[in-house]
Amino acid sequence: MTTETTDTAEAQPVPELAAEVVEQWRAEEAELVDLLARAQRGIGGIAAFRLGPTPTVLVTDPAAVQHVLGRHPDRYVKRSHRARMLVGDGVLSATGDAWKRQRRLLQSQFTGTGMRRYEQRIAAAAQRTADRWAGYARTGETFDLAEEMRGFALDTVWRALTGQPLDDHTDRELRSVERVVAAMPTLPTDAADARDAVAADLARIDAVAQAAIDAARSSSGTEEPGVLHTLLDASSQHPEYTDRLIRDELVTLLVAGHETTATTLTWLFLLLDRHPEARTADPQALVSETLRLYPSAWILPRHAVEDDTLAGHHIAAGTDVLVCPYLTHRDPALWPDPERFDPTRFTPGGTRPAHLGAYFPFGLGARACLGTQFAVRETTALLDLLLPSYAPRFLAAPTGAAYSITVRPDGPTPAVLGA
């Protein structure tokens, strides 16, 4: 049970994973997720481990998740985001009052009535993909499914941002986003060195963003403005919205708005290939179950800025905390047979945990993904068109996952279409 007070007099230290387990993990050169899984299995939903002189705390227990993300985001804050070199001061990495202002401006664009303006754009991007798949079905051409999903998601978010469909030149240049994201886990720890390592790709991204800003500025009277127009309008009243900050918001929305959606859809089709009996399930249930296994953000780092008591355990100010939806979603105490792909968990009468902190593929609380409604709408719009007519058959399939900003399949996904 979560304790809502910062009085730590009666709190116990967080149990810590044995040093020899950490050393074994190092020797195996395994992914971080493997170490986190060992901590969860060996200790439980609140566990500590040391990679340096001070412990890091893993949080997967639902009540503790809600405490950290939902109830006390002021005690557990974001620090410098690992994607900062790419997204700059955009809403993903911003903190404090700047984040509140940026979030407030963008939230109205992606919730409630704001979503209505994107319905036709989402439908047009989905139809564009469906038309291309009709061609693949006629010719028997082999295509890479992950590339298809990337193209669809990028086209959709580009239409939302600019009011225009994605053109071939912009598509090619924005490959740089994918390259930077893929390189992040292996980049130097020094920020300047990391930027230098991907400088050419960052320059291409900057050029695309500036061209889009200039085009939006020159077409401010169009009937179908995009999010960029909202940001440009804000600059007339808020001097902090310079072209640089507008660029950072644009790139943030591009990264958050296409990388996660493309990955989710790729996993979904891979899962359906393994479980064809699920093809008739409701598209939203399919998406929800895919997000359970492969949440949009698999790990959510936070930093404790004050002493706290978390489920009876003392969290000292300065502690790094890792909230991990990937592991919460695969906890057998919460999800029976958790590795099984079962969309009926998310249909009426399905069995799923009631606790809010047991399922949070888009985060939780004040810093949850502001594009959740947009992401769900675009994925279901595409599935409504593709699932009744096409069943991709994979000629090869990835054998594992790569853990970066998202959890991506670790290899190509060549496929052909069958009816």
CATH superfamily: Cytochrome P450
Q: Please, how many helices? A: 16
Summarize the main sheet: 5 strands, mixed
* SSE string: EHHEEHEHHHEHHHHHHHHEEEEHHEEEE
Q: Measured on Cα atoms, how large is the radius of gyration?
A: 22 Å
| Mean pLDDT, all residues | 91
Output the CATH class name: Mainly Alpha
- Order the strands across the largest sheet as they lie in space: 2-3-9-6-4
The secondary structure category is alpha+beta
**Ranges with pLDDT <50 over ≥5 residues?**
1-6
DSSP strand content: 5-15%
Descriptive account of the structure:
By secondary structure, the protein is an alpha+beta fold. The chain has a single domain (12-418), classed as Cytochrome p450 (Orthogonal Bundle), CATH 1.10.630.10. It contains 16 helices and 13 strands. The N and C termini lie far apart (51 Å). The model is unreliable at 1-6 (pLDDT under 50).
